[in-house]
């Protein structure tokens, strides 16, 4: 694995560890405040932080599982385990974070209960905002380069490393949730309407639901197989096209196995005067050149094929896909 890949992976892990530490501190303070004040919004925030803490633990577990080497049962390695656990995290945010918060809020609206000692809530929410803010800043620094280059939404969609943006979105939702909880607490106390506390909890549940849907959508897309970055694909085709003995690089199929691993299948038309042993040597040379420039290509399969045959097979495959 190249230094750049190791550095990116280490940076993402640091982001997850920072989020884990921050969420543990936040969860403990929120749980204490929820028990002390009886606030529905604070209870929802406590549940939110507990879910986030377990999520970071699952992401780190996913990294450990994904690092296992290839074997006979999994010849391309276990990289997609990280995408599986990322999808589980998104489901947990929806089922536990969003579901519990929404239910808690509805029940509190139907049966309002005054907040005891709201000052405790303000202090805890302020400390939580600081803890979450530090974690958010670390996560933002991890993704800001891609965000500035492609725009943050496009960078999120293009990303092959879901934990990086997952932590950023979780922390963003947490900061917004803290603001909602604080506003709901102020409204409940100022207007002497405890139902506002429940409204805040419902809004936090909706916020977590939206966040979980966005994360689940992207994790699912990676789990079932996304192509590699288009720039990498173009580079691989160009490398093959410039190789001696190659008449044409017909096309390339890529699948992202993990944030740092890609499998590629390349169709190449070789010169007609090349014998089988010469083509074999050319294939080895092309594979070596591609891995030299793109070490993230964990496996590459090169198929000698005329351009006419390639177009025919591709048309058949696309036609079958459309019929399905």
From TrEMBL:
Name by which UniProt lists this protein: Cation transporter
One Pfam family this sequence matches: Cation_efflux
GO annotations of cellular component type? membrane
What is the scientific name of the source organism? Bradyrhizobium manausense
Judging by the UniProt lineage, the source's domain of life is: Bacteria
Q: What is the lineage of its organism?
A: Bacteria, Pseudomonadati, Pseudomonadota, Alphaproteobacteria, Hyphomicrobiales
Localization of this protein: Membrane
Q: Which GO terms describe its biological process?
A: zinc ion transport
Give start and end of each Cation efflux protein transmembrane domain. Answer: 17-224
Kindly give the InterPro entries that the UniProt entry links to this protein.
Cation_efflux, Cation_efflux_CTD_sf, Cation_efflux_TM, Cation_efflux_TMD_sf, SLC30A9
Alphabetized UniProt keyword annotations: Membrane, Transmembrane, Transmembrane helix, Transport
- Membrane spanning residue stretches: 82-107, 119-140, 173-192, 198-216
How would you describe this protein's topology in the membrane?
Multi-pass membrane protein
Keyword Transport included in the entry's annotation: yes
């Amino acid at each position: 694995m190249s230094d750049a890949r190791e550095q990116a992976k280490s940076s993402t892990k640091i982001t997850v560890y920072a989020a884990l530490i921050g969420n543990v501190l936040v969860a403990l303070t929120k749980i204490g405040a929820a028990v002390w004040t009886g606030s529905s919004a604070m209870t929802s925030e406590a549940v939110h932080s507990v879910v986030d803490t377990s999520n970071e633990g699952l992401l780190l577990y996913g990294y450990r599982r994904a690092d296992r080497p290839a074997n006979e049962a999994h010849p391309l390695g276990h990289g997609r385990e990280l995408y599986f656990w990322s999808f589980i995290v998104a489901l947990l945010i929806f089922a536990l974070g969003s579901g519990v918060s929404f239910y808690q809020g509805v029940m509190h609206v139907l049966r309002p209960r005054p907040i005891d000692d709201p000052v405790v809530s303000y202090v805890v929410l302020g400390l939580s905002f600081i803890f979450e803010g530090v974690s958010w800043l670390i996560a933002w620094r991890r993704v800001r380069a891609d965000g500035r280059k492609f725009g943050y939404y496009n960078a999120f969609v293009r990303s092959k490393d879901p934990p990086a943006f997952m932590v950023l979105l979780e922390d963003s939702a947490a900061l917004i949730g803290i603001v909602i909880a604080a506003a709901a607490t102020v409204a409940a106390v100022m207007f002497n309407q405890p139902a506002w506390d429940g409204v805040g909890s419902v809004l936090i549940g909706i916020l977590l639901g939206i966040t979980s849907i966005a994360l689940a959508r992207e994790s699912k897309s990676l789990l079932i197989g996304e192509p590699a970055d288009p720039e990498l694909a173009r580079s691989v085709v160009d490398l093959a096209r410039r190789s001696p003995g190659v008449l044409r690089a017909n096309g390339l199929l890529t699948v992202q196995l993990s944030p740092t691993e890609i499998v590629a299948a390349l169709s190449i038309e070789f010169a007609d005067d090349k014998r089988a042993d010469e083509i074999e040597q050319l294939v080895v040379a092309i594979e070596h050149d591609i891995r030299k420039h793109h070490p993230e290509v964990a496996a590459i399969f090169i198929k000698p094929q005329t351009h006419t045959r390639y177009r025919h097979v591709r048309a058949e495959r696309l036609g079958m896909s459309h019929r399905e």
